Amino acid sequence: MSTMKIYCKYFILKINLIMLFLASFADAQVSDTITDKGRYESYLNFRSLVRDTYVNPHWYADGNRFWFAAGTPENTVIYEVDPKHNTKREFFDRDHLMKVLRPLLEKEPGTKGIPFSTFTLLEDKNAAEFFVENKKFRLSLKDYGIIRIEGKEEDEIPPSGIFSPDRQWFVTTKDNNIELVDRLTKKTRQITFDGKDDYPWTVTDGCWSKDGKKLLVKRPDGRKVHHLPVIDYSKPDEEVKYSVYAKTEGVIETPELYVLDVTSGKTVKIEMGSNAQQYAFPIGWRPNDSEVLFMRLDRLGKKLELLAADPDTGVSRVILTEESKTFVEGLDFLIDAWEKQVTLLKDGNSFIWLSERDGWRHLYLYNINGKLIRRLTSGDFPVTTGLIRIDESKGWVYFTANAEKNLYSTNIYRVDLKGKNFKKITSADGIHTYSQFSPSGQYFLDTYSSMKQPQSVELRTTDGKSLQLLKTSDTSRLQKIGFKPPEGFVAKADDGITDLYGIMYKPYDLDPAKKYPVVEFIYAGPFMNVVPHRFGPNSAPTAMAQALAQLGYITVIMDTRGTVERSKAFQDAIYGKIGTCEIADRVAVFKQLGGKYPFMDMRRVGIYGHSWGGYFAVRAMLMAPELYRVGIASAQGELTEGAEINEPYMGLPEDNKQGYEWGTNTNHAGNLKGKLLFMHGTSDVNSPISTTIRMIDALTKAGKRYDLILLPGKDHFIESDQYVSDAIRRYFEENLKNLK
Q1: 486-735: what fold?
Q2: Rounded CA separation 324/344 (Å)
Q3: Residue 121 region, left (φ>0) first, then alpha (ψ -120 to 50), else beta?
Q4: Would the pLDDT of 3 be above 80?
Q5: Measured between alpha carbons, how far is 132 from 106 in angstroms, rounded to an integer?
Q6: Over 70: is that where the pLDDT of 26 sits?
Q7: CA–CA separation, 42 vs 159, rounded Å?
C-alpha cells in the first residue's frame, strides 16, 4: 500500500478515529458526583455525551418535502417537513403503530420511540415498508393496517462501489483489480487480471462514461519506488512485508490513466507527457463522451494542468496551466482536495476552476479550451472547501468561504454565473460546513456550530431566509460533568504583525489565583488546520487536550503560519524552511498568553504531537528548550521521509540543502534539555519507525536521555489506543505537573 493511500485513509477517517479513540471509554459513568478521573474519562468520551447531531433528509419526488429521523436509537421520532408551508410534523402515530405492531412481534418493542430509523415510502405514498428486529413490514398510512412481508435487512444494504449511469452495475476493486457487480443479482465480473500491490488498478468517482460502456481508471506504477520493509517482531519467526513508500528525492509512483471498455476489457492508455515523475487525477467525462478530463501536477507542486484526452486514441491536449514560484498545491490537494479543483458545467463546454493566483483562493469560469470567461469571486478572503452546488437553471454557484472578521468563521455564500450578487446565505455565528440542498434548489439544510454553541440544523431558502430550526444537539449529559467550552484567543506571530488563532481548555474548577501547568497539543502540518472552531473536539488529540485540562492543566491548541484557509502569503511563510517560524510563532504566542493569564505557569510547559505534530514536538524541545520542559512525540515524521509530504513545501534536498539541514531534527539533538518521550508503532507505513530510530540514535550520540515506547504491530493510528492515551496522561503527571 502506498504512502498516499495511507494518508487518504487517515484523513477520510479522521473523524472516525475520534470515535475509535473515544470508544475505549464508552463505559465511563456520568453522575453528579463525578471524580476528576471520571470527568477526564467522560471528556475523552465527549462525542457519546452529545446526541442527535445531524439531519439526514430523505427527499420526496417533488424535490422540496422530506422526512428525517431524530432522537436516539432508544427514542426515535420521525418528522416530515414541508418547506413550502414551513411545517414540521411527526410522520407516524407512535401509539397506533405500536398497537398494530405488537401482535406481529409477539412482544413489546424494546424502544420508547419509533422502533426503526429508516423506511421506504411506496410510490402511491399510501404505505411504508420498514424493518423491526430484521422482520419486514408494510404499513398502510391510511388506516394503519399492517402485514408481514418477505425480506431481510442485510439484503437491502446498498453496495459499496460506483454505480453505472443506468444503476444496473457498480464498479469496485478487489485484490488490486477492477470488477463489476450486478446490482440485482450481486454477481461479479472481473475485468482486469494483472493488478499487483505495487501496480494496482483503481477507480474514482466520475469514472463511468455517460453511455455506461467505458471507465476512466488509474493505475499507479510503484514497482521502481522504494519498498519500505515492515517487520512483525512479535512473531517467533519475524515476518517481513513491504509497502510502497516514495522517499524525498527518490522515485515516486508513475501515474497511468486508461479508458477501459467494460465489455471487452480493451484498454486505451492516455498520453501523460514525457515526465513520469508527476501526480495525476482522473476527473471524468464530458457529457457527450467525446473526451475524458484529468489533471496532472508536477512532483514539486509548482505546476498544475487540466487536460482532455480522446478516449479512442488516448491523445491528450492541455486546457489550462496554473503555476507558482512556491507551490500551487500541496499534500491536502494530493489527498482529496483535488476533487474540488474543477467542476464541469452540464453542457461540458465550460468549467469552474479554483486558483490562488491573486493571493487568495477564488473561483474562475473558463471555457473548455482554457479561455478565461470571468472570475466569479474576489476579495481578501479564501474560498475554502470549494463548490457545494451549481444551480445552472437559476444561474447560482454555492460555496463556503472565510470572509468574516473572524478569519476562521466559515459560512455559505452564493454568487451568480456572471460574477455578481455575491451574498452570504447563512447567519449564525460559527462554522457552517455541512449543507444539504433540496433537489428543487429552493431550500437547504444548514448545519453549524461554534465553540460555545452546540450543533444545530436550520432550514433555509437558498436566497438566505431562515425558515425554522429543525433541531439542536442534545447536550444534557455534558452539563452533568460541568462542561465549560474552551476560550478562543488571538495573538501576534513572531513577526509582530500576523494574527494567529487558538484555543485553551481550562480545568472545570479553575482558580485564577493558582498556577497551572500548560500543555500544548501541536500539529502544524502545512496542509490542514487543527483548532476546533466548531463545538467539541475535531480529532483524537483535541479530545485528549480537553480531557487532560480536567486533571489540572491549561491545554492549548493553535494554528500558526504555514497552515491553510488563510492567504497564500500566510501559507508561503514556511516555504523552503519548514521548522523555522512554527516554533518561533509559538514562543511569541506563549509570551503574550503568559502576560494576559497569570494562572498559566510558564515554568511548566509541555508539548504533545502526533505525525507532523510529533516532528514539531521534538522541534519545540530542541529549538525552544527554555519554554518547553517536557515533550511527547508520537509517530513523528521527518523531512527526509515521504516525497508527497515534504517536497511541495521544501523542494528537493539537492536544491534546498540549507533548508533541509536546518529543518532536520537530528542535526539539533545536542540542544535537548527537558524530558522527551517517543512513541511509535512498529508497523507504521505513514511515518516509518526509522524516523524515531534515527532521532534516538542522534540523541544517544549526543549523550542525551530520552524515553521510548514501542507498540508492536501497531500502524500510524495509535492515537486511538487506550495504552497510548494512558501513557500521555501518565508522562505529564510524572514529569510536568510537579516540576520545579
Answers
A1: Rossmann fold (3.40.50)
A2: 24
A3: beta
A4: no
A5: 12
A6: no
A7: 36
